[in-house]
Specification:
Strand order of the largest sheet: 2-1-6-5-4-3
Number of helices: 3
Largest sheet: 6 strands, mixed
Structural class: alpha+beta
Number of strands: 6
Order of helices and strands: HHEEHEEEE
Low-confidence stretches: none
Amino acid sequence: MANDEPDLHALARMVRRVDDRQQLAELLSRYGMAVDDRDFDTIGKLFAIDGVFRGVKGRQAVVDFYRERLASYTASSHYAYTWHFDFDSDDHARGAVNGHAELCIDGKTIRIALRYLDRYVRTASGWVFQERDIRFRY
């Protein structure tokens, strides 16, 4: 009968990994909304203290980069379509996110396709970006 009993440790690991994936998907959603809403406090909370965005290092430097960059857009909309996550450990993961953004600059709407290349870290407050890079498709 012992072989018929469920492996509760394996089940707990599986449930945790499903929850991790859901939290990471929500991180992606919160990022797009925070950028579009110019919610710089939330943008900061989505990055690790020593987080990196496109070579800009440190949470406050990343927030300052967004403030400057987004000042030239009258509006924006970011959409994530597909993503995958690979876990290096229980607290570190990598991911790729395909999506597009619509940016209003000088009265013109520009649509870009992009791919984010991410590294994530679990902190006391949950999953955040350790590093986020971007590749423009067009």
